[in-house]
Amino acid sequence: DTAVSQTPKYLVTQMGNDKSIKCEQNLGHDTMYWYKQDSKKFLKIMFSYNNKELIINETVPNRFSPKSPDKAHLNLHINSLELGDSAVYFCASSPGLMTYEQYFGPGTRLTVT
Amino acid sequence: ILNVEQSPQSLHVQEGDSTNFTCSFPSSNFYALHWYRWETAKSPEALFVMTLNGDEKKKGRISATLNTKEGYSYLYIKGSQPEDSATYLCASYGNKLVFGAGTILRVKS
Questions:
Q1: B35 touches chain A (CB under 8 A)
Q2: Which of A95, B20, B55, B81 would be B50's cystine partner, CB 3.0–4.6 Å?
Q3: CB distance from B45 to chain A under 8 Å?
Q4: A36-91 per-position pLDDT tens digit
């Protein structure tokens, strides 16, 4: 059983397109996150939801919009994709806010051409 | 310290050696310090979350200590094995959650 799953694993698309990445966790956790691994391999937090409520919204372009239909899902929608959006995006979940260990999904490699 | 800094950047050790890395983080508004192990082509895997000054945690051959007053944490690996080869990330949660760049460990058999 996969604890945190993401789909798709790979996504290749052209500039200007709109795409979504889905994340699901079956751990019963209350908190979910989206991270971007940049070109220097740094992990940077983008968003965090706790009980479907947005609690962390870092300086991310408005083209990125998270949506949490329920506690088990946190999807990432990206409008008008740009070359600089190419990266690996990781979803994670934890039982509560930041003082709990996080469980990461396998990552989605997004390539914008 | 404004950012989370890890040292060394990379480390090559022989099987059986003990080793340690450092994570430095802002000591103001501190909530928690996370350590993760990240193997190539896999996802980060949680090792420890520490919150209290002087905290020490252990999992098998790996242990970590925390000094919140001076803003650093040490990760120790006793008797390194080839399967310990990975990138070890720390992340500090203060005003925001910030990850360090990681320490790449390679253990030669």
A1: no
A2: B55
A3: yes
A4: 998 778 899 999 999 888 888 887 899 999 999 999 999 999 999 999 999 999 99
CA–CA distance, B9 with B54 (Å, rounded to integer) = 25
The greatest distance separating any two alpha carbons of chain A, rounded to the nearest whole angstrom, comes to: 38
Place of tokens 């501190």: B30
Contacts of B66 in chain A (CB under 8 A): none
* Residue B95 burial class via C-beta count within 10 angstroms: exposed 0-12, middle 13-18, buried 19 and up: exposed
**A62 contacts: CB under 8 Å, gap ≥ 6:** none
For residue B70, the tally of other CB atoms under 10 A from its CB is: 9
Query: What stretches in chain B show pLDDT beneath 50?
Result: none
Report strand pairing: A108-112 vs A87-94. antiparallel
CB contacts < 8 A, A to B, total 44
CB-count burial class (<10 Å; 0-12, 13-18, 19+) for B41:
exposed
For CA atoms A100, A101, A105, A111, give the dihedral sign. positive
Residue A35 has pLDDT above 70, yes or no: yes
Per the CB < 8 A criterion, the answer to whether A31 and A95 are in contact is yes
